[in-house]
UniProtKB/TrEMBL annotation:
It comes from Halomonas urmiana. This is trimethyllysine dioxygenase. It is an enzyme of class 1 (oxidoreductase). Residues 9-86 form the Gamma-butyrobetaine hydroxylase-like N-terminal domain. Signal peptide: none annotated. The lineage of its organism: Bacteria, Pseudomonadati, Pseudomonadota, Gammaproteobacteria, Oceanospirillales. InterPro entries: AlphaKG_dependent_hydroxylases (IPR050411), GBBH-like_N (IPR010376), GBBH-like_N_sf (IPR038492), TauD-like_sf (IPR042098), TauD/TfdA-like (IPR003819).
Length: 372
């Protein structure tokens, strides 16, 4: 059963549909009216100027029949809404699976299959979204071996370092990644706008002593910090440090909290880059609280509770969510052999778009007689 009640001089509509109750503003319904006069049938984009609708717009009549809501608005417009669509507010993406070291998944994909087959590519992208990383095997051990798979998803993100860049020890290194030292868990390039969304790390050779990769789920770290030290969690969502990178030809600056929240108050991005962080000269009491909170977060992302250890073999590639995962490596010695990896970036928008389109194409349309 469905019941409809008008409130606030008919400028709100309360719908009780099969035990679920929601209130809708008349203006919200009017600007989303699913007809060819309001929304372009092909693109779904709005054709009317919503800001020109009268703020006093009201609903003059409402009728429910056969799962559809028929409305007449005070501006004379009539709209027909599917009740299921009004109540279907599920997110377009499935939930992510947070993990600690003991429960860490090992999502894997085959390079050739993902390049050639949409189903395999979708499975890889779904795993990447769900777990924050995926290990791809069978990548050609050539300098641009990852490129065919990148081309299946979206453009390669170019930076001041070029497109696909070397990760190996060099003389006069312009970044600490190009040395033999170990790297603390970090997110890449928080000084860029936008921050690169996904890191692609491709192993050509890895015979050096050491140089193992580490991963930690930053969203799990944020969850644990919120449970164990709410004050520290709150501090890291509010204080906004800066991040800085500079060389002979580049000067980049950015800012943002170590734990960034979405509109629902849930972590949507973590930043951690000890090498490039520049905290402003806040009042001493604020800095004391921030430093204590940062230390608590650091202990989580470096502790064995959350740290997953991996060593890439030649022909393997690690794709990582740079908004969620923190990655690092142990120090290595070249006396034991050569360590040569290649790294590229692909942005989040093209990756998410490809995943959603493939999922939509893989979902069969409802047949006659089935609910839409």
């Amino acid at each position: 059963m469905t019941h409809v009640t008008s409130l606030a001089k008919n400028r709100r509509l309360v719908i009780d549909h099969h035990g679920r109750t929601r209130a809708f503003a008349a203006l919200w319904l009017r600007e989303r009216s699913p007809d060819a006069e309001t929304l372009d049938p092909r693109t779904g984009q709005r054709l009317i100027e919503a800001a020109e609708l009268p703020l006093t717009l009201a609903i003059e009549s409402a009728d429910v029949r056969d799962g559809e809501l028929s409305l007449r608005f005070s501006d004379g417009h009539c709209g027909l809404f599917a009740l299921k669509a009004l109540f279907d507010d599920a997110p377009s993406d499935p939930p992510q699976r947070l993990w600690a070291a003991a429960s860490a998944p090992r999502p894997e994909a085959d390079f050739a299959a993902a390049v050639e087959d949409d189903a395999a590519l979708l499975a890889m992208l779904e795993a990447l979204h769900r777990d924050g990383f995926v290990l791809v095997s069978g990548v050609p051990t050539e300098e641009h071996g990852m490129q065919p798979l990148i081309d299946r998803i979206g453009p390669l993100r170019r930076t001041n370092w070029g497109g696909i860049a070397d990760v190996k020890s060099v003389a006069n290194a312009y970044d600490l990644t190009m040395t033999q030292r170990g790297l603390e868990p970090h997110t890449d390039n928080p000084y860029r706008d936008p921050i690169p969304g996904y890191i692609w790390l491709h192993c050509l050779t890895n015979a050096a002593d050491g140089g193992d990769s580490t991963l930690a789920d930053g969203f799990m770290a944020a969850r644990l910090l919120r449970e164990r030290d709410p004050a520290a969690y709150d501090c890291l969502t509010r204080v906004t440090p800066g991040f800085h990178y500079q060389d002979d030809t580049t000067h980049l600056e950015g800012e943002g909290p170590l734990i960034e929240l979405d509109s629902q108050g849930e972590p949507v991005r973590v930043r951690y880059s000890n090498r490039t962080e520049r905290v402003p000269a806040l009042p001493p009491e604020e800095l004391e609280a921030y430093y204590a909170a940062r230390t608590a977060f650091y202990r989580l992302i470096t502790g064995e509770e959350l740290t997953l250890h991996l060593k890439l073999d030649p022909g393997q590639m690690l794709i990582m969510d740079n908004y969620r995962l923190l990655h690092g490596r142990s120090a290595f010695q070249l006396a034991g052999g050569v360590r040569h990896l290649r790294q590229g970036y692909v942005d989040r928008d093209s990756t998410a778009s490809r995943r959603r389109v493939l999922r939509r194409q893989a979902t069969p349309a409802p047949t006659a007689g089935e609910p839409a």
